[in-house]
Amino acid sequence: MTFDELEELHYITPIDNMKSILERGILSHVNSRRIKHKSVAMDEIQERRKKVVVPNGKPLHQYVNLYFHARNPMLFKRKASHQELCVIRIDKSVLHVAGVVITDGNASSDYVRFLSSPVGLQIIDRGYVFAQYWNHDDPIEKFRHAFAKCAEVLVPDGVPSDFILGAYVSCDESKTQLYDIIGETNKDFSVTINSDLFFQ
Predict the structure, then answer these.
(1) What is the DSSP letter of 94?
(2) Does a structural domain hold residue 90?
(3) The dihedral of CA 141, 145, 148, 150: what is its sign?
(4) Range of the domain at 193
(5) Distance between CA atoms of 165 and 94, rounded to whole angstroms?
(6) Is 112:144 a contact under the CB 8 Å cutoff?
(7) DSSP-derived pairing of the beta strands 164-169 and 191-193
(8) Which of the residues in the chain have pLDDT under 70?
(9) Distance CA 39, CA 85 (A)
(10) What is the dihedral of CA 13, 93, 147, 25, to 10 degrees?
(11) How far apart are the C-alpha atoms of 164 and 158, rounded to whole Å?
């Protein structure tokens, strides 16, 4: 993948966190501990991620993990909770922030590769990442495709709110809820309904 081929990056979060995110930006796992928030993360995955140190970088939990495309196995596992979630749209210029790292799959996987950004875009399989589905008759191919769908952009410490372009939600109810939470001061914040992104 090239930088020009990329439109934006994604971050999956409960809608309840949006007011704080617009005020403080998106914080890493470590930095968000001091702030009351909800999480979409699965405990067993977080246990694995807390043991990972990015090569020539920091512990994985000191990064914000963005996705190239949120319609991936992570969001699929949370599809029953779609009304409570949103996908934040992140400006791709975040790839030029110092210390950003790109992975070709889930950052806690045994087989993942880490490369500095933006040169790391070369290890991203655009066809796999943006495919509608990742099921294959061949179990090895299915594993490879699901792995690639979870490719990450790791941003050290946090993503300032200046990089936030807007958000996707799955339905009208979620859109109303998001605007209720972020309040009148953010009434111009762009919220787009995209039910397909949430497997609806």
Answers:
(1) G
(2) yes
(3) negative
(4) 9-198
(5) 12
(6) no
(7) parallel
(8) 41-45
(9) 10
(10) -20
(11) 12
Find where tokens 């914080």 sit: 27
Give per-residue burial for 91-107: e unless 16+ CB within 10 Å, then b: ebebbeeeebbbbbbbb
Domain count, the chain: 1
Instruction: With respect to residue 156, please indicate whether it lies within any of the assigned structural domains.
Output: yes
pLDDT at residue 51, as a whole number:
86
pLDDT at 34: 84
Residue 106 is which amino acid? Answer: N
2 occurs within a structural domain: no
191's enclosing H/E stretch is strand 191-193
pLDDT at 43: 66
Q: CA 79 to CA 147: how far, in whole Å?
A: 18
Q: What number of residues does the chain have?
A: 200
Give the pLDDT confidence score for residue 46 in this predicted structure: 74
| pLDDT for 47 | 79
3-state secondary structure of 175: helix
Check residue 156 and give its pLDDT.
98
**Residue 3 within a domain:** no
User: What is the pLDDT, as a whole number, of residue 45?
Assistant: 67
